From TrEMBL:
Belongs to the cytidine and deoxycytidylate deaminase family. Zn(2+) binds at C53, C86, C89. This is Cytidine deaminase. The gene is cdd. It catalyses: cytidine + H2O + H(+) = uridine + NH4(+); 2'-deoxycytidine + H2O + H(+) = 2'-deoxyuridine + NH4(+). CDD domains: cytidine_deaminase. One of its GO terms (molecular function) is identical protein binding. Its cofactor is Zn(2+). Gene3D superfamilies: Cytidine Deaminase, domain 2. InterPro entries: APOBEC/CMP_deaminase_Zn-bd, CMP_dCMP_dom, Cyt/Deoxycyt_deaminase, Cyt_deam_tetra, Cytidine_deaminase-like. GO terms for biological process: nucleobase-containing small molecule metabolic process; pyrimidine-containing compound metabolic process. Keywords: Hydrolase, Metal-binding, Zinc. This enzyme scavenges exogenous and endogenous cytidine and 2'-deoxycytidine for UMP synthesis.
C-alpha cells in the first residue's frame, strides 16, 4: 500500500470540502482490499447538525458501492497538526472499517499519525 499516495488523495479531496460555516476543510481517502479508492470531503449545512464529515462520506461511498473490505483510511485537514476525527466518525469507523489502518495528516502530509479504530475509540459501543 502506498500510504503517501493515499494521503495525497485525501489532501486533494480536501479541495472539494463544502465548509462555508466552519471554514475547516477536511478530505479523506479510503482504500479497499481490491485496490479501489473512494474519496470524501466534509459537507456542511445551514442546519449545522446535518453536516457530514469527510471520513463518513468516503466510508459510505465505499459501502454503497458494495466495497466493505476497507484496509486503510487517510484523513487530511487544512491545519498544521494531524487532524483528530470526531467521535461520530470514530464510532462509524469501528463498525464499518474495524481493521483499517487510519492515517491522520495535516494539510500537506508533512505530519502524519498512524492509528486504528480500536485505538481511536476504546470501549466503543457495539450491539
Ligand atoms: O475529522 C474531522 C473533523 C471535522 N470535520 C468537519 C466537520 C465540520 O464540517 C468541520 C468542523 O467541525 O470539519 C471532518 O470532516 N472530519
Ligand atoms: Zn467526523
Amino acid at each position: 500500500m502506498d500510504e503517501k499516495l493515499l494521503i495525497k488523495k485525501a489532501v486533494k479531496a480536501m479541495e472539494n470540502a463544502y465548509a462555508p460555516y466552519s471554514g475547516f476543510k477536511v478530505g479523506a481517502c479510503v482504500l479497499t482490499s481490491d485496490g479501489t479508492e473512494f474519496t470524501g470531503c466534509n459537507i456542511e449545512n445551514a442546519s449545522f447538525g446535518l453536516t457530514v464529515c469527510a471520513e463518513r462520506v468516503a466510508l459510505f461511498k465505499a459501502y454503497s458501492e458494495g466495497k466493505r473490505d476497507i484496509i486503510a483510511l487517510a484523513v487530511a485537514a487544512d491545519v498544521d497538526e494531524p487532524v483528530s476525527p470526531c467521535g461520530a466518525c470514530r464510532q462509524v469507523m469501528m463498525e464499518l472499517s474495524p481493521d483499517a489502518l487510519v492515517i491522520l495528516s495535516n494539510r500537506d502530509g508533512s505530519k502524519v499519525m498512524r492509528t486504528g479504530p480500536g485505538e481511536l475509540l476504546p470501549y466503543g459501543f457495539k450491539l
